Amino acid sequence: MTLSHPGTLSGRLVVLEPLAPEHHDGLVDAVRDGELWSLWYTIVPRPEQMSAEIRRRLEQQELGTMIPFTARMAETGRIIGMTTYMNIEAETPRVEIGSTWNAASAQGSGTNPESKLLLLQHAFEVWDCTAVEFRTDFHNHQSRAAIARLGAKQDGVLRAHRRAAGYLRDTVVFSVTQAEWPGVRRGLEHRIARHLAVPGAAQLG
Q: N-acetyltransferase domain spans which residues (predicted)?
């Protein structure tokens, strides 16, 4: 059993389109915006690793364990990052939203909450998922705060969970359940509306 690919997911601030090899150059430009690979507690490809990372994600898609997307600014079409459905459990169904990174200049623009809204909406309202997970490094306080702002609740910490960048990482697990989704959706819609309605709303977070 597999979950059908949603194709392109379009919002007013961001468009998520199926990852393809021809996105390489735009993704390289995006990852250089803020040198995102330099943060020791994140796993973000360096420019010279982008081809291999695209290939890895597409191979995981062939195996049915990942559905990867390229994120673009809706207004300009500029590529700003990557995100995925991953750890797909089609029988339940249940998925994780992860392996996400966004160019520094796009952070605070409203594109991240809208990206999460698009992915969560498809997971709950099309696939009928029981829950959607988010995971991050214990030391990545910015990511943990961002996940909590989405409305996800912390399930726990997987201690000594995986090896990453020369250390043994603790992984913090969050989730949104199907019963919680209506409230989470309203919260995300409110955040996105502020960015659409208020000049300079990127400063609102």
A: 14-153
Q: Which of 70, 76, 133 is nearest to 102 (CA)?
A: 70
Mind listing the pLDDT tens digit for each residue in 71-103? 999 999 999 999 999 999 999 999 999 999 999
Order the strands of the 9-10 sheet from edge to edge.
Answer: 9-10, 14-18, 66-73, 79-89, 94-102, 131-137, 167-177, 153-164
As given in the structure block, the two tokens for residue 78 are 């500029």
The model's confidence at residue 198, banded by pLDDT at 50, 70 and 90, is low
pTM given for the model: 0.91
- Coil/strand/helix, residue 182: helix
CA-closest candidate to residue 184, choices 129, 103, 139, 108: 129
Cβ proximity of 2 and 64 under 8 Å: yes
| Segments in 40-110 forming alpha helices (H) | 50-63
Q: Which of 172, 195, 198 shows the shortest CA–CA distance to 12?
A: 195
Token pair recorded at residue 155: 């399930």
